[in-house]
Amino acid sequence: MTSSKILVIDDEETLREGLAKLLRLDGYEVLTAVDGPKGLEICERFLPNVVLTDVKMPHMDGIQVLNVIKEKFPKIGVILITGHGDRELAISALRDGAFDFFNKPVDFDKLSNSIKGKLEVQELEQERERLQVQLFQSSKLATIGTLAGGVAYEFNSPLAVVVAYVDEVRAMIEDRHVDAKKVGELAANLGMIGKSAARMQAIVKHLLTYSRQSDALDFRDINLNDAIRNAFMFFHKSFQKGMISEVFSLADDLPRVWGDAGKLESVFVSLFTNSRDAFETITDKRERCVTIVSSRHENGHVTVIYKDNAGGMSADLVQKIFEPFCASKISAKGTGVGMAVANGVIGAHKGTIALESEMGQGTQFKLTFPAYQQGETR
Questions:
Q1: Residue 360's pLDDT is what?
Q2: Distance from the CA of 366 to the CA of which of 14, 85, 241, 298 falls in 20 to 30 A?
């Protein structure tokens, strides 16, 4: 805490310098400003941890300073210093994001405790962000492992085609009596080789793109249908092996959303993975099916319904499914962070996810995202 920066904004020199002196004695690095505009310049340059600002000041009052800081520097804590007549205004400011307020004359001991409290909150937030990064990294490694397994399944079939048709082409080339019919067969075989090689190339390219994802979000306008299809690219063969049918009903006129394509794909990878692994635990003769429906919602949102009949979850698991390291799979596969990360990704896209599940039947996730507005940035 002793390295924390405190900015004091007050047009009254006696109060400003008096608070600065006491705060320096507490071990803080203290910056001062005589008014709001100069204070905001200091915020831009030095990013203090806490700002103490008077409410009544010329040029720009403390409430305006608070509003700018909350918009541009949301991690900075703001404490208001008010006259007695400003109490109602200060209470209203608390609802707008101020951390605390103090009446003049300021009780420094209480102010010091409030600053320490805000710094402790900031330290907890930093620790939470650090743990969240670890959580994303853990999930990313688990997901890449899942996709690598999917690549092995997806490659088996086109590789077999390539090997078989290469042998056919070689035999035709070695046969010096190649008639017109064989020339046609040769062209067809080469076409099959090219098609299979292109399929494998697309899978590898997508896996490399996915594995290079950074933790930072890269927002642009995208089509959620593409994210769904790209995610399923790694599950086609494993679904076939598990006799799981997929029914995609993806709206052609789906509005685009403002999002990170790779991160949204990871959400659907988690859903496909959970369904596939859940079906592995089912021994009855039910028809196994995953259904995905995307649609344009009348309120300007994009909705995706993901549904499977893989046996459902217990009420206890439904309550915990979005918690980090929730052990959702009976087979104990994975890290248990997939849905927690998916929930975080959806939240970062200003979306929502709702879960319904009936034990012995199946599970449905409803994902909703705001449609992209032209010129949107984040």
A1: 87
A2: 241
